[in-house]
């Protein structure tokens, strides 16, 4: 068989597998995989440095399918090139317990680099992957020892290009000159509703050129040599990321549905599949046919992948000999584990120190951690001075200094969130990012995806309540903390003082199973005297008895963050009246939920039904701890523009109101 005939056989194998899988599932997106089959085939057999037998090979090229609805394209090429995916997995597409879910899921299917589906998220993830590669290469490579040297490829569609997150991420990527980032744009001009002409008539290429990208066009997406040449051209540009605009046809090969939106999100139907296979010169039966020649050719990638990793192992051996200290550090950071003594520099905060905002305390802890964690890196969405997210003594991560750890994300919260995920997915770095809590709304989809993937990202959210003050309700978070608590897998921590803030960072760093959101104050808070109150190390349990009554408590005050000192003041007042009052600091619902039931009952005894929560946010959600006999002091309305202390007082956050509410509850 001639090489070009073998190539076409492999491409059509991808197309027919995709058609058959979607048809069997009676659900899915056949059109995009059929149109993008030449791109997927070219990448996985002629371009990517990858090892199907070790999908985690550290110096592999990364591939992101941002157009995650085209998942059957990815599953087909992964199966054909020898990843641990079987033909039965392909046949089980979109079924319960399947290794081939409707959209690619990181950690679920071998070879899937990131969970994609919400359009544009994968594109921004890819920017994060490319940033991590540049950082590690600059920090650890030495002359003659390029141990970190790979590209990031992302395959995106018209939907990705329309989503705002892609614009944010592309703008930053162009500014940073991420030349090892290559985006192949499936320019098929079709979305669910029809032709892109009805909504999307901009010049995408000109837009990306304005961002600082190189733009290359491939007029015929079925031309494998043109695709390969475009990728070579992209790699030659050492100053800019590249957008390769590939004109494709959705449902390529289908006599009646090629180029039609009907092929986007529904099976072709048995009749059209038969016509399509006939048009492609393919047997109508059996379904899921994989010609031996095609499989054997694609499986050559297994040997190529083993050689690629073996070559990298040799480079690493030479690197270890020439630069043992740097090599040892690289191996350590790539392991994802924290180095010995990583927390020895965390500062201690004592009550003799002045009151301090938890955002300021967080900045001190962050800088202490940066001294022992060489790949702790991140920044803010243009709010670093307010978020206290700068690492002192470090320069900015930019095209001239990729080895620096301060990232200037600009006013791009949504992209920042997804870029942080990409950095975590790459491995080797500990990413964090900050903004005002109220703007968590702008990055919530990215936070959700990080939680879904279980990524160890840290979000630094400051200005955590109406105490923001004069900026008014647009900048005063109300529902935000509870909304973040609603995301499965996200650990939310709202510390009460500087000491709890230090422990919050400790918990964030040891949490390797998912992201952590630190909720921090703008206003100064007193540092609690831990000789009088329980030690702050108890924060690791999520909730703990901070101060207790001498007798069995009559009432329990449960508070978080800046409201904890208020609860303590109310406890003292109630004690004067002979009321046994326990104060529970509850910085993290999620950590508390992980503790044994016996511990939870010890902190919140079931017999004590009079419970009052105090938190400057919505009351919904607190009923899980206050119970039927309890109550909540919170804010179920928007704030107002006035000095922060005035707003708090007007909305009931005074010692007098807490005491009076407790009295009513007891009566």
* Net shape: elongated
> What's the arrangement of strands in the largest beta sheet?
9-8-10-11-13-12
* Rg, Å, rounded: 28 Å
Number of helices: 25
Chain-averaged pLDDT? 97
Largest sheet: 6 strands, parallel
N→C terminal distance:
90 Å
Query: Can you give the helix content as a percent range?
Result: 40-55%
Low-pLDDT stretches are: none
Sheet/helix structural class: alpha/beta
**Proportion of β residues?**
5-15%
Number-wise, the strands total 18
Q: What distinguishing features does this structure have?
A:
single chain, 667 residues, alpha/beta, six-stranded parallel sheet, five-stranded parallel sheet, 25 helices, 18 strands
Task: Give an overview in words.
Helix content is 42%, strand content 12%. A hairpin with a 2-residue loop joins strand 4 and strand 5 (194-195). It has a six-stranded parallel beta sheet with strand order 9-8-10-11-13-12, with helices on both faces. It contains 25 helices and 18 strands. Helix 1 (3-25) crosses helix 2. It has 667 residues and is an alpha/beta fold.
Give the helix/strand layout.
Layout (H helix, E strand, L loop, with lengths): L2 H23 L5 H17 L14 E4 L5 H10 L6 H5 L29 H20 L11 E6 H5 L1 H13 L4 E7 L2 E2 L2 E2 L8 H8 L2 E5 L5 H13 L5 E6 L22 H10 L12 H7 L1 H23 L1 H12 L22 H13 L5 E5 L3 H4 L18 E3 L4 H14 L3 E7 L3 H14 L4 E5 L17 H6 L5 E3 L4 H13 L5 E4 L24 E4 L7 E5 L4 H13 L4 E5 L3 H6 L2 H7 L7 E4 L8 H4 L4 E3 L10 H7 L4 H12 L1
Parallel strand pairs: 1-2, 2-3, 3-7, 6-7, 8-9, 8-10, 10-11, 11-13, 12-13, 15-16, 15-17, 17-18
Antiparallel strand pairs: 4-5, 14-16
């Amino acid at each position: 068989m001639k090489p070009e005939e073998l190539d076409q056989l492999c491409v059509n194998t991808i197309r027919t597998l995709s058609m058959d899988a979607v048809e069997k599932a009676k659900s899915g997106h056949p059109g995009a995989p059929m149109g993008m089959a030449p791109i997927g085939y070219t990448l996985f057999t002629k371009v990517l440095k990858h090892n199907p037998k070790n999908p985690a090979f550290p110096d592999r090229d990364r591939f992101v399918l941002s157009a995650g609805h085209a998942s059957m394209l990815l599953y087909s090429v992964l199966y054909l090139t020898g990843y641990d995916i079987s033909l039965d997995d392909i046949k089980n597409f979109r079924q319960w317990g399947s290794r081939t879910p409707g959209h690619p899921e990181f950690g679920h299917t071998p070879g899937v680099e990131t969970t994609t589906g919400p359009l544009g998220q994968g594109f921004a993830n890819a920017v994060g992957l490319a940033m991590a590669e540049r950082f590690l290469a600059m920090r650890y490579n030495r002359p003659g020892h390029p141990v970190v040297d790979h590209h990031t490829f992302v395959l995106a569609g018209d939907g990705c290009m329309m989503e705002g997150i892609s614009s944010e991420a592309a703008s930053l990527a162009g500014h940073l000159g991420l030349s090892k980032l290559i985006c192949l744009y499936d320019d098929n001009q079709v979305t669910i509703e029809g032709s892109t002409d009805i909504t999307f008539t901009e010049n995408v290429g000109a837009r990306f050129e304005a961002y600082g990208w190189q733009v290359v066009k491939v007029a015929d997406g079925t031309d494998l040599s043109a695709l390969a040449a475009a990728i070579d051209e992209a790699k030659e540009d050492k100053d800019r990321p590249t957008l390769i605009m590939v004109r494709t046809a959705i449902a390529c090969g289908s006599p009646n549905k090629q180029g039609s939106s009907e092929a986007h999100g529904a099976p072709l139907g048995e009749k059209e599949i038969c016509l399509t296979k006939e048009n492609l010169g393919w047997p109508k039966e059996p379904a899921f046919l994989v010609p031996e020649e095609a499989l054997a050719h694609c499986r050559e990638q297994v040997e190529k992948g083993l050689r690629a990793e073996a070559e990298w192992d040799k480079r690493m051996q030479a690197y270890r000999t020439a630069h043992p200290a740097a090599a040892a550090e690289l191996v350590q950071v790539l392991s994802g584990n924290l180095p010995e003594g990583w927390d020895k520099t965390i500062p201690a905060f004592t009550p003799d120190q002045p009151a301090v905002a938890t955002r300021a305390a967080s900045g001190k802890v962050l800088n202490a951690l940066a001294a022992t964690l060489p790949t702790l890196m991140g920044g803010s969405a243009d709010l670093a001075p307010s978020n206290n997210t700068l690492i002192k003594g470090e320069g900015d991560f930019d095209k001239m200094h990729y080895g620096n750890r301060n990232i200037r994300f600009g006013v791009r919260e949504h992209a920042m969130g997804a870029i942080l995920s990409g950095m975590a997915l790459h491995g080797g770095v500990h990413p964090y990012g900050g903004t005002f809590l109220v703007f968590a709304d702008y990055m919530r989809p990215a936070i959700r995806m990080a939680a879904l993937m279980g990524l160890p990202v840290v979000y630094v959210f400051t200005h955590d309540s109406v105490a923001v003050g004069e900026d008014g309700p647009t900048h005063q978070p109300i529902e935000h903390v509870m909304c973040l608590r609603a995301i499965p897998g996200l650990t939310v921590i709202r510390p009460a003082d500087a000491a709890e803030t230090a422990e919050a960072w400790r918990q964030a760093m040891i949490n390797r199973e998912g992201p952590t959101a630190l909720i921090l104050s703008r206003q100064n808070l007193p540092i609690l005297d831990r000789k009088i109150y329980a030690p702050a190390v108890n924060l690791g349990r999520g909730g703990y008895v901070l101060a207790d009554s001498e007798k069995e408590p009559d009432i329990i005050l449960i508070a978080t963050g800046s409201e904890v000192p208020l609860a303590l003041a109310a406890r003292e007042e109630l004690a004067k009246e002979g009321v046994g009052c326990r104060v529970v600091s509850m910085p993290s619902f999620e950590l508390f939920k992980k503790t044994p039931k016996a511990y939870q009952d010890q902190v919140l005894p079931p017999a004590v039904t009079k419970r009052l929560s105090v938190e400057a946010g919505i009351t919904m959600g607190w009923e899980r701890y206050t119970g039927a006999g309890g109550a909540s002091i919170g804010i179920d309305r928007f704030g107002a523009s006035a000095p922060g202390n005035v707003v708090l007082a007007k909305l009931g956050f005074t010692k007098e109101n807490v005491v009076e509410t407790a009295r009513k509850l007891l009566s």
